[in-house]
Inverse folding.
């Protein structure tokens, strides 16, 4: 999926919501536990319920890997389900990969070819040759960690560099934007740090930002939109637990849909405010 | 496996070799391609052939994930095979994971519980709470990326920080050594940068260093030992392609054993030189 297609989808649906499928086997409703394949069954119903209000799904690979082979089966089946029934939705493997060139190439194959994800999150620590293999396929995206939503973001990301006016995360933005373009790179910026969006938008005015941390982690959607939105929206705001685990009765999917719809309505208003 | 057990294994075997199972389906001998499970068959024979000369195996998860569900099956079966038949060998998941706390906890479960790996490589960019969940199980290890062997290491890792005499990778060492101890943390230091070992040993004199990049990537074992070895050895030197793909006939395992034995002999001499 390219930049314009994603922008069109946002404009059409009046939403920039990404639903995070952090599907924890221990948290899914007990009525599903008897199903042959509880995680996939849960994901299918969440996808069907929330797709009308969202433009993207993000699958956190850790939650699948923790279930071993069955988890990897669930991951593949879920990506395949979304791409079959909702081909216009953007699918992100939240895998935070990154390794030397020949290894990153293997990860790109895993998530872009074996699976049909549109994007993968990538850690920047190993530099250009660890990121470039994710930028080589048209319509596929690397989403580079810039400023994350957790406490540990202050350990290294916000340190200032010598002979520069920039912090580490700003330097990641400055250097890496030369490796790709707004057509194949996005950045992860935590919603918990909305005051940083202004500086980030000076460095990468046009790129999409993937923003986790709204909801359970305490980030505020209005602040994110105020400081992070650009003229094409340029935001994918993720919500995971606050949507998918909002209810654990047999109505879990209906409640998830309501939560997603509420966010979509807020997003619609924020898009209008920005003249989109 | 704890620090002393690993040191004992090195002393007993006269080797600090880690064999990297970067098993690329396209590179394994054609005679194995007819096997029901070519990757696992290849790994089993490489493990049996090289175990006498090595103290560790490192499985690069990218090579398995690129084969989808079957790859994850091969990964689990290989770890299980090593832990069943060679319980004294140290098994590393070279997965370069790292995410917010509740997600890293899931990765720890994936590699330490679902699989029985002893250690996992972790990217430091997201800071303390992304690393700590890997330090909570006795006998299990996080191996944090410090200075990697690739060209991209110079993009961020070697940048100097303001108000400090340290580069980013040195700061990663300085901060992170307070998060754990030599009993549950190691560091990745590329063999391609032996001149850096001296400074690294000033910061982490006792920790084990996992050293990739010897062989195919151009690193030199003698330099690594000269600058990186401590009084308990403190090194695991990895070789992947130079051992496992040294030959692609039906004798591939015998040739791999010869290559591993050659390295073990060099290592034995280097251990003696250091009085170990």
């Amino acid at each position: 999926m390219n930049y314009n297609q994603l922008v069109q989808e946002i404009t059409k649906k009046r939403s920039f919501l990404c639903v995070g499928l952090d599907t924890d086997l221990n948290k899914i409703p007990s009525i599903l536990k008897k199903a042959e394949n509880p995680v996939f069954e849960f994901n299918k119903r969440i996808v069907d319920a929330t797709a009308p209000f969202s433009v993207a799904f993000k699958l956190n690979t850790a939650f699948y890997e923790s279930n071993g082979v069955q988890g990897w089966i669930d991951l593949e089946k879920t990506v395949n389900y979304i791409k079959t029934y909702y081909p216009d939705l953007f699918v992100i493997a939240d895998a935070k990969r990154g390794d030397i060139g020949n290894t990153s190439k293997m990860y790109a194959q895993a998530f872009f070819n074996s699976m049909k994800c549109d994007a993968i999150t990538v850690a920047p620590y190993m530099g250009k040759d660890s990121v470039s293999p994710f930028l080589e396929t048209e319509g596929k995206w690397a989403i580079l960690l810039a400023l994350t939503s957790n406490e540990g973001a202050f350990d290294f990301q916000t340190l200032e560099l010598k002979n520069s006016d920039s912090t580490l995360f700003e330097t990641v933005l400055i250097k890496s934007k030369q490796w790709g373009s707004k057509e194949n790179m996005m950045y992860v910026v935590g919603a918990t740090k909305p005051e940083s969006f202004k500086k980030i938008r000076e460095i990468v005015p046009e790129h999409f930002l993937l923003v986790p941390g709204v909801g359970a982690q305490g980030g505020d959607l209005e602040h994110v939109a105020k400081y992070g939105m650009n003229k094409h929206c340029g935001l994918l705001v993720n919500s995971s637990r606050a949507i998918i685990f909002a209810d654990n009765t047999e109505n879990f999917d209906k409640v998830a849909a309501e939560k997603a719809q509420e966010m979509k309505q807020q997003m619609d208003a924020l898009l209008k405010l920005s003249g989109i």
